[in-house]
Write a structure and sequence with these properties.
Length: 251
């Protein structure tokens, strides 16, 4: 059996899980595939006896699980985020088959913490939550009945990550990415800064709705998978723009 490389830098994030049994099933699936970090965003019931029962031999993983209030909090220190979705999305999102996505996630996790997001059982992830992702994951299924139980979806994703770790991809060697990828917190600070400058220069959404510009901008930069130096360069540029627009002081 191939022994996988470390998957410690990859976390599974469940957003608003409603059934405690599913949380336990996820913990068991993760431990089966050597993943150990579980983050829960606003779980309906946790901790819960049913979660402990369904976790079987993975109760230690449940005991270490973190509970946070938002997806932003869950991925704040992550430089790479992938999100699962079963519905067709805007073509501006980069979407990959689960197998290919797992290779990308593992390769990125060798450089920076990475997260895989799973939405609520009934509603999935919102567009605002998906906007935090660098890529979307498609899990192929029977088109006549494509719906997967949360535990099943996580099991499939963890299996592919386990396989990717056992046979690391060579398409993004470490030598090509010596600088850590920008974390979620880095990107949020960049988006706030960018929004400020856009307001200062009166750069607005001129479309009829006038509400989608920043969403499109976020998707653009998320697809770029910027490293920390690149974000610093862009923020330096934004600061320079702001300084040029400030009136000169008295001479």
């Amino acid at each position: 059996m191939i022994q996988p490389m470390s998957l410690a830098a990859i976390r599974i994030v469940l957003v608003e899980p409603s059934h405690p049994g599913n949380i336990g099933a996820v913990a068991r699936a993760m431990k089966n595939m050597a993943l150990s970090e579980l983050v829960l965003v606003r779980p309906k019931a946790f901790p819960h006896p049913e979660a402990m029962a369904r976790a079987s031999g993975a109760v230690d993983l449940l005991a270490r699980a973190r509970v946070v209030e938002s997806v932003v909090d869950a991925v704040a220190d992550c430089g790479f985020v992938a999100a699962t979705t079963s519905r067709p999305r805007d073509t501006n999102f980069r979407a990959l088959d689960l197998h290919e996505a797992a290779v990308n996630i593992f390769a990125s996790s060798e450089l920076t913490p990475a997260a895989v997001l799973f939405g609520a059982e009934r509603t999935g992830l919102t567009n605002e939550e998906l906007a935090l992702a660098h890529l979307l994951i498609r899990i192929p299924a029977n088109p006549e009945y494509p719906s997967l139980n949360l535990g099943m979806a996580v099991q499939l994703a963890c299996y592919e990550l386990f396989r990717a770790a056992g046979s690391p991809a060579d398409e993004r060697p470490l030598s090509e990415l010596p600088v850590p990828l920008a974390t979620g917190a880095d990107m949020e600070r960049f988006y706030v800064h960018l929004s400020q400058v856009m307001d200062e220069v009166d750069f607005k959404d001129r479309t009829a709705g006038g509400t989608h510009l920043m969403t499109r901008v976020r998707r653009l930069f998320q697809r770029c998978e910027m490293d920390q130096n690149e974000v610093n360069i862009l923020r330096g540029f934004l600061t320079s723009v702001q300084s040029k627009r400030r009136p000169a002081g008295p001479r």
